[in-house]
Structures are given as C-alpha cells and as structure tokens.
Amino acid sequence: MLLLFQVCHATPLRLVTFDYPPYITEGDQGPEGLATSIVSEVFARIGKHAQIKLYPMNRALNLVNHRRVDGLFPLKKTSERESTMVYPNQPLLIQDYVFFVRKNSPWKFNGQLASIAGARIGITRNVFYSPRLDQALKAGLFAAVESTDSHELNLRKLLAGRVDIVPCSRVVGLQLLQKIPGGNEAVQTGPSIEKVASYLVFTPGPDAARLAVLFDQTMSRMTKDGSLNRLMENELRRQQQAPMRIH
C-alpha cells in the first residue's frame, strides 16, 4: 500500500469528463458540479492529484479508449466496456432515466415500453441508457431512431418536432431544458424507465485495479462519515433544481 501511495503522489491522474449539467458543468476554474466534486474529494483523500478536463463526450470516450488518459466519468457499465476498462464497485451516480415529449403529445409512456412502440425516438451516440431500453432499440420497437452527439441536441430536435420522444436522465434533461429556448414546451411522460448507475472508469494500467479499490474504500468512508451527503447538499444549494413536470 505504501508503494501505491508513492506512485499516487508521483504524477497527477489525468481524468476526462463531458458537459452533463448539473452533475458536470464548465465553471470559471474548470469542471464543477456534484460528480466533479465527489471525484476531486475522493482523490484528495487518497493523496492523488486529479487533473480533470472537460471535452465533448465522444472525444472523451476516444481518449479513454485509446488510453491517452487515466480515466473518465461518468460512464455506465456494459459487458463490452468492462472488457476494456477497469470499473470500481462503487457507482459515482445513480440516476432516474425518463422519457421527454412535447406538451400535448399523443405519446404517453405508462411504464411499459410497448406503450410508445412506433414513436420516433432521439438518442445520443455512444450512450447506454438502460438494459430495458437497449433491448427495445435492438428489437426495433420504434418507427425511427435518430441519433445526435449530445443530450441537448436531442432535446432541441424534440422541441422542433423532428422526433417524438427522447430518453434522458431526469435531472439532466430538466436542467438542459431550462437553458434551451422554448424548453418549457417539453415535459416528462410517465414514470422512470429505470434507475441506472454511472461510474468513474480507469484505463487499464499497472495502477488501475489498485486505484479502483482505493476509490471504493474512500467512497465507503465518505458515505459512513456523512461527507458524501454534505457534498450533495452543498451542490443542491448551489444549483437550483428545476421542478419536475409530468405529462
């Protein structure tokens, strides 16, 4: 363990992320938000300086896939990703994924994906939403599947009438709609699709597995000592959450 701490102190950890408000946003001093605060606090406790840089999502994924950085967050878990990346056991975020539609849309999600069969759905490239939705997409449940490079572009397409329905993290979707002109014309339809965990992942390397273990241990301690809850409370105070609109 001493050797690991010596390695940890030697060079900064290069982490990448992407705009994912309110969990990750670009601030005056660099990336900020709840996910960024948690990651920074974890590595400060470990004794490792984490350099966190924000990129467009697909570029951030490319950097980690080509092993040009040490890790990325937040990322959901799939069997394919587990074969090429090192995942801690502890998730960084657990989110409710929901569907957004335009006001007065005939499409209403009742908890069963069959209720929106035939809709034109807008998805974000390289995003794994949930096991349920992934299966429905592969099964051809929807009349058309339109893909873009960001959640914001998807919501803009929804507002423009180019797609009928868009899946997104509830909190992220509501936050994005606050800044998009006409965003109040979109609403959540029905219940959550699924609760899904997102992780900080490490690029395979000599210290990746040990850093994942230290990450897990530190997250557990932060949960027990209440500091994780305090970080969440501080972020909630800092960023006003949009009221949830149900269709």
Report helical residue fraction.
25-40%
Fraction of residues in β-strands: 25-35%
Number of helices, where a helix is a run of at least 4 consecutive DSSP H or I residues = 9
Task: Kindly report the average pLDDT value.
Answer: 92
Q: What's the order of the H and E elements?
A: HEEEHEHEHEEHEHEHEHH
Question: Stretches where pLDDT falls below 50 for ≥5 residues?
Answer: 1-5, 241-247
Using the coordinates above, name the CATH class of the largest domain.
Answer: Alpha Beta
Note the topology.
Elements: H1 2-10, E1 13-17, E2 25-27, E3 30-32, H2 34-46, E4 50-54, H3 57-65, E5 71-76, H4 79-82, E6 93-102, E7 120-124, H5 131-138, E8 144-148, H6 151-159, E9 166-169, H7 170-179, E10 186-202, H8 208-224, H9 227-238
Parallel strand pairs: 1-4, 1-5, 7-8
Antiparallel strand pairs: 2-3, 5-10, 6-9, 6-10
Helix pairs in contact: 2-8
Write a structural description.
This protein has 247 residues and is an alpha/beta fold. It has two domains: 2-93 and 198-238, 3-Layer(aba) Sandwich (D-Maltodextrin-Binding Protein, domain 2), CATH 3.40.190; 94-195, Periplasmic binding protein-like II (D-Maltodextrin-Binding Protein, domain 2). 37% of the residues lie in helices and 26% in strands. It has helices at 2-10, 34-46, 57-65, 79-82, 131-138, 151-159, 170-179, 208-224, 227-238, and strands at 13-17, 25-27, 30-32, 50-54, 71-76, 93-102, 120-124, 144-148, 166-169, 186-202. The strands form three sheets. It has a six-stranded mixed beta sheet, with helices on both faces. Strands 2-3 form a two-stranded antiparallel ribbon. It has a two-stranded parallel sheet with strand order 7-8. The longest helix is centred in the C-terminal third of the chain and has 17 residues, at 208-224. It is globular. It starts with a helix and ends in a 9-residue tail after the last helix.
